[in-house]
Design goal:
The complex is a heterodimer. By secondary structure, chain A is mainly α. In chain A, helix 1 crosses helix 12, helix 4 runs antiparallel to helix 7 and helix 9 runs antiparallel to helix 12. Chain B has a domain of about 170 residues: Orthogonal Bundle (MetI-like fold), CATH 1.10.3720. Helices cover about 80% and strands about 0% of the residues of chain B. Chain B is built from 13 helices and no strands. The radius of gyration of chain B is 25 Å and the shape is flat. Chain B starts with a helix and ends with a helix. Classes of the chains: A mainly alpha, B mainly alpha. At the A-B interface, helix 4, helix 5, helix 9 and helix 12 of A face helix 1, helix 6, helix 7, helix 10 and helix 11 of B.
């Protein structure tokens, strides 16, 4: 009001001081982080939590509903679901992480090679990537796995890992293309730094934040892929306990109406996925990086 | 113009060719016995001579490249061989099942995109208010749930507990009326729609939010247009090209979704067939199905590209500017 040149009819702009400062936990998906943390801890220290041997088939108590002795009930083969969840969570989370590592390494290699290579090689790699990107990931995984037949933890992670690198590679390529002409990279290369040196010391630290969101989301889709595969009976066999293979008993459970066999492992699965998604979304918002379309 | 579309068609043909070669070699090199799908359990009792004879008859003994060459020659004439499992021409088997998938996927597609547009607009209008926040939260959670588990829960609730809807198949035994078929379609359709809805709705919401922050909205407002008119006549309309290309890209993804849903509900569509053929090494059927799916995938992407490059007048205007 005391301004000498007061303009009329213009909205007062917010000055910086008017924006409230948030406490550190604001925007952080605290609930998701805590829940996921607890879940991971529970799976890591499964031995301490388990009340029964998860692999023991107690044929006297098969398909008992949740109660005092069997906290979450038993499945149609007489195994204690409460113990299986913590024990099987290890496998599910491990597959999620391992296949994400495979994917990320592949994506970084393809992306940075494509970004650093000559125009023609770059176009070739990107065309190839785009063709692969067009195929729905889960479908591709199911087909490869169905053709391969019997699976174990590592082969599943491998199949999931090699089918998910495309969108990540595209983002890395764009980033690398922007970075590659900067002076410090030129300097590093002139001083004799080879491809991996430049990648590790100069490129990776710069693009890692822009793929962080995709890395987190890949853990999610890997867990979904594993459980879908195991559910369809082409993933992990029944003896290898994971959340997916626990759900593969659900067809039998449906017929007899044993809801706990389907609902309880599913809730853990979905809960984990929701937590990971919330954290992923938080990372995306914070990073505010280029989003992929697919 | 001719060069543009000619190039596209060329890329299409080359991709299909590469795809067919990859599927052909990979499926044949994978471990597994295709004879099982032809002869069933009898295979185990076969003597080596019988095996050899059978393999010769199906042409499985030749080198892979010779087999591929034969496949190419025959498929050019429209002959995709017989399905080992069904002992009928693979084309016939697929044609029998195709309508089911088309109905499931097609109606699902229309539902997904009309509902997504609706939800997106509703959310954008109520931006950051309670309704928007609730829809966003619910949407994020539903998009996290794996499709097969949604199906299981729906079967558990509506088929097992409430006994309202059938849990599997496309129609009841011996009954084949329209209403019966519709009843069988409800659950699979719900899963197909739920699995994809939020992804697209959220994208539309964000696109509209981006759009209403543009300068022309201010101009329209200053001109005296009502909020509704600005939104529908300008913002939504501006978004349509990207919406259309999104629809084209999504075709393969929705198709992939129906494949999974079909296997859970044992719905007799292409999806269950594809899964069976991959699992039991029914090579001829697998080839035909992957070629079909591949075509849909590639076509979907091409249409999206064409929409992006040709249909949106703004892009053409930009190109014209560059040429000058």
């Amino acid at each position: 009001m005391n301004d000498r040149f007061q303009m009329v009819g213009i909205l007062k702009k917010k000055t910086a001081s008017e924006v409230k400062s948030h406490p550190w936990y604001k925007e952080h998906p605290v609930i998701s982080e805590v829940l996921l943390g607890l879940l991971i801890l529970g799976c890591l220290f499964a031995k301490g939590i388990m009340t029964k041997d998860p692999t023991y088939m107690d044929l006297l108590h098969y398909a008992t509903p949740p109660g005092k002795e069997f906290l979450f009930g038993t499945d149609t083969m007489g195994r204690d679901i409460f113990s299986m969840i913590w024990y099987g969570g290890r496998v599910s989370l491990f597959i999620g992480v391992l296949s994400t590592v495979i994917t990320t390494v592949l994506a970084i290699l393809v992306g940075s090679i494509s970004g650093l290579a000559s125009e023609r090689v770059d176009t070739l790699i990107m065309r190839f990537t785009e063709i692969l990107l067009a195929i729905p990931g889960l479908l591709l995984i199911i087909f490869i796995q169905a053709i391969l037949g019997q699976a174990n933890v590592f082969s599943i992670s491998f199949v999931i890992g090699i089918t998910g690198w495309m969108s990540m590679a595209k983002v890395i390529r764009t980033e690398v293309k922007q970075l590659r002409d900067s002076e410090y990279i030129l300097a590093a290369r002139m001083m004799g730094g080879n491809f991996f040196y430049v990648l590790w010391h100069h490129l990776a630290p710069n693009f890692i934040s822009s793929i962080m969101f995709m890395v987190v989301m890949h853990v999610r889709s890997a867990i979904v892929a594993e459980s879908t595969l195991s559910f369809m009976g082409i993933g992990l066999p029944l003896e290898v306990i994971s959340w997916g293979s626990m759900l593969s008993l659900s067809e039998k459970a449906l017929l007899s109406g044993n809801w706990w066999i389907i609902v309880i492992p599913g809730l853990f699965l979905v809960g984990t996925l929701v937590c990971i998604t919330q954290i992923g979304n938080y990372i995306r918002k914070r990073g505010n990086t280029t989003q992929s379309v697919l | 113009m001719i060069r543009y579309y000619g190039g596209k068609i060329l890329i299409f043909i080359v991709s299909i060719f590469v795809l067919s070669f990859l599927v052909f070699t990979v499926s044949r090199m994978a471990p597994g016995d295709p004879l099982v799908s032809y002869y069933g359990d009898r295979v185990e009792k076969m003597t080596p001579e019988e095996r050899e004879h059978a393999e010769n008859r199906l042409g499985l003994r030749d080198p892979i490249l010779t087999q591929y060459q034969r496949f190419l020659e025959k498929s050019m004439q429209g002959d995709f061989g017989i399905s080992y499992k069904y002992k009928r021409s693979a084309t016939e088997v697929v044609l029998d099942r195709l309508p089911y998938t088309l109905v499931l996927g097609g109606v699902g597609f229309v539902l997904i995109f009309s509902l997504a547009l609706l939800l997106g607009i509703v959310c954008a209008v109520h931006e950051d208010r309670l309704l928007d926040q609730i829809i966003c939260k619910v949407g994020t959670v539903t998009s996290c749930i794996p499709e097969f588990w949604v199906s299981l829960m729906l079967i558990l609730i509506f088929a097992v507990e409430l006994k309202l809807l059938p849990s599997s198949g496309a129609h009841s035994l011996r009954v084949d009326t329209l209403s019966d078929r519709l009843l069988h379609l409800i659950l699979p359709m719900t899963v197909v729609v739920l699995g994809h809805l939020w992804y697209y709705a959220y994208m539309i919401r964000n696109k509209i939010l981006e759009e209403i922050r543009r300068d022309y909205v201010l101009l329209a407002k200053a001109k005296g247009l009502s909020k509704r008119k600005i939104l529908y006549r300008h913002c939504v309309r501006n978004m349509i090209p990207s919406y259309l290309s999104l629809m084209a890209i999504s075709v393969p993804h929705i198709l992939g979704g129906t494949y999974i849903v079909e296997t859970v509900f044992s719905f007799p569509g292409i999806g269950t067939l594809a899964y069976e053929s991959a699992r039991f090494h029914d090579y001829n059927l697998l080839m035909l199905l992957s070629l079909l799916s591949g075509m849909v995938v590639i076509l979907g992407n091409m249409v999206a590209q064409i929409i992006n490059e040709r249909i949106d007048p703004r892009i053409q205007a930009k190109e014209a500017m560059h040429e000058r």
